[in-house]
Specification:
It contains 17 helices and 21 strands. The chain is an alpha/beta fold. It has 3 domains: about 5-135, Elongation Factor Tu (Ef-tu), domain 3; about 145-270 and about 410-570, Rossmann fold (3-Layer(aba) Sandwich), CATH 3.40.50.300; about 275-400, no CATH class. The strands form 4 sheets. It has a 10-stranded mixed sheet with strand order 12-11-16-10-17-18-9-19-20-21. The chain has a 6-stranded antiparallel beta barrel with strand order 1-2-5-4-3-6. A hairpin with a 7-residue loop joins strand 20 and strand 21 (about 555-560). It is elongated, with a radius of gyration of 30 Å. The two termini are about 25 Å apart. About 45% of the residues are buried.
Length: about 575
């Protein structure tokens, strides 16, 4: 795909200088000495036409990675004044630029000849420099320094050739979540590019900090015409997300009223929870033990045994939707039966009563645990297991309660926002693990890549840390390794990529970075950057990102526009007008 431009425009003189002849050129890079009346800046794209013996014309495309200037004729530092101010010393100002080669067409890898004319790559030449003409489905992800769109090949995100996206950067100034939402808005707003994947596309977003993502369906009052013009240039009508559902955990029980635990927004937000029956059937017990340190002892073994026994012993209670009792299958009952509780029999209606019932089997008062539930493990490990259960019941017991099912309906809207910012760290990991398991499990059952399911998860280093093991980390690694073939795509954001499990990072085909800490930028996880790009990453402003994709051999610096949706309550446009409709 190339942009349609007239031949008259393409044939205009775009010369900016000549290939420098005082240094060797190579197939990786070369330098340009600029004409007095021209300039090149970082990220400009250029092309050089070289006549190769027996082959004909070869075009070398490149991107400017550094610019420099010097006085030729100056020997000492004080000569600068003699040349520039006094005019007593002959000298000439020379400006030059370093160019990293991105493409050679035809693919005959020879270096450009010194002295050859260097031109700006514009129109179809610009598309060739960025490999747009070879992209199966080019999706614009922002604009370059020249104000023109920059593209990624969507085949490397949605699973056809690769999958997943990783976004790194300093918290607060790297705008990681903003870029992730911008990318998803483009994805949803360009069905012509997404193709078959646009039908029934589902996006699951976890709001882990503040309430920034609870306003995606509201227009931003500070959105201006300049930003609207950029959105239109990218092929998307500027506006908030058109189809969004919001979910939040319930507040601690206050009678029979269930209220979502949010602050600034209550309207349009539904409370979610799981019943004890759903908790057992989905095997969610394992997500109460997501601390990576638990893998160093036998607690995971006990959890697995207890999870299996819960499925075996749980029987539904007549007249109490979602509630269960634990009965031996030898009494003639099976899962799915509805029974009337016996006198004194414990009815499990929430997480606290479930934990108390488990404790009776694994750590009874007589000190003899039921080995059918725990296996042969030390009493100290059993006690540690029970302590973790009680801590979980205290920190997140409001999310497991009997009654009508309040599971999150990910099919009710294209974008599902799950607000977990009010939960304890354990509760956040539990919700993330439960929904990832549900999403991935559904796709495994169908075995089909379509419809696509996109998961947006911030603070990825907390859920898939580099060290240790946990059920949640294993789930994320599984998604990173097999998810693209099943249409489960991860957009993960983190402050430091060096703290995320390498199996997750290595499977991200698209890599994005905002402003980076100086020490972090030098780590091997950012080896995909050029040295000059690493240096720039320490100074990037909000709204500017470095993007790497397999379709290009060098990373690109792109800018993305201000969002048309609100990110906090104060930004919500209450006028009801849409001044940018139709742009």
């Amino acid at each position: 795909m190339t942009t349609d431009h007239s031949r008259a425009n393409e044939s205009s003189d775009n010369g900016v200088g000549r290939v420098l002849g005082t240094e060797h050129t190579s197939t990786r890079e070369f330098r340009v000495v600029l004409d007095d009346a021209e300039y090149l800046q970082l990220d400009d794209l250029v092309v050089v036409r070289t006549q190769v013996p027996k082959q004909g014309e070869v075009r070398t495309y490149g991107i400017v990675t550094e610019v420099a200037a010097i006085f030729e004729g100056a020997t000492f530092e004080s000569d600068t004044h003699r040349i520039a101010v006094e005019g007593t010393l002959p000298g000439a100002k020379v400006r030059s630029a370093e160019v990293a080669i991105t493409r050679v067409d035809p693919e005959l890898w020879v270096s450009p000849d010194p002295g050859e004319k260097v031109e700006r790559a514009r129109f179809s030449e610009r598309d060739k420099a960025l490999y747009v003409d070879e992209m199966g489905r080019p999706l614009p992800i922002g604009t370059g320094r020249d104000g023109e769109p920059v593209y990624v090949d969507l085949d490397f995100f949605d699973g056809r050739k690769g999958g997943h996206m990783s976004i790194s950067g300093i918290s607060g100034v790297a705008t990681k979540t903003s870029f992730a939402l911008f990318f998803l808005r483009l994805l949803a707003g360009r069905p012509d590019v997404l193709g078959d994947g646009a039908a029934n596309l589902r996006i699951l977003v976890f709001n882990v900090k503040g309430e920034d993502l609870l306003w995606l369906d509201k227009r931003n009052r500070y959105f201006d015409p300049a930003a609207a013009q950029v959105w239109s240039q990218l092929g998307v009508e500027p506006g908030p997300f058109p189809s969004v559902s919001f979910w939040a955990p319930p507040r601690m029980r206050t009678g029979d009223v269930v209220v979502p635990d949010t602050g600034g927004r209550q309207e349009g937000v539904a409370a979610f929870s799981w019943t004890p029956r759903e908790f057992i059937e989905d095997g969610l017990l394992r997500f109460l033990f997501t601390d990576a340190t638990d893998s160093r002892n036998q607690i995971p073994f006990i959890e697995e045994r207890v999870r299996a026994q819960l499925r075996r012993y749980a029987v539904d209670v007549a007249g109490r939707p979602g509630a269960i009792v634990l009965r031996d299958p030898g009494e003639g009952h099976a899962p799915g039966d509805n029974v009337v509780p016996n006198r004194g029999e414990r009815v499990i209606a929430d997480l606290a009563t479930l934990v108390a019932a488990i404790e009776e089997f694994v750590d009874p008062e007589d000190g003899e645990p039921d080995q059918r539930w725990t296996g042969r493990v030390q009493a100290g490990t059993v006690s540690a297991f029970v302590r973790r259960l009680h801590a979980a019941a205290h920190r997140m017991g409001n999310m497991v309660r009997a009654g009508e099912s309040r599971r999150i309906d990910r099919r009710s809207a294209q974008v599902t926002v799950v607000a977990i910012q009010s939960l304890h760290d354990l509760g956040q990991r539990f919700v993330v693990g439960a929904l990832l398991a549900e999403t991935f499990g559904e796709k495994e059952q169908t075995g089909q890549r379509l419809p696509l399911s996109v998961i947006v998860l911030d603070e990825l280093n907390k859920y898939a840390p580099r060290e240790g093991a946990s059920p949640l980390k294993e789930m994320l690694i599984d998604i990173a390794q097999r998810g693209r073939s099943l249409g489960v795509l991860l957009v993960g954001a983190q402050q430091t990529a060096s703290r995320v499990a390498s199996e997750v990072m290595e499977n991200a085909a698209l890599r994005v970075a905002g402003r980076l800490d100086a020490a972090e930028a030098e780590r091997s996880e950012y080896g995909w950057m050029l040295p000059s790009t690493r240096a720039r990453a320490r100074l990037l402003k909000p709204g500017t990102m470095v993007v790497s994709q397999p379709a290009l051999p060098v990373p690109l610096v792109v800018e993305f526009p201000f969002p048309p949706w609100a990110t906090r309550k104060e930004e919500v446009d209450t006028s009801g007008d849409d001044p940018f409709a139709g742009l």
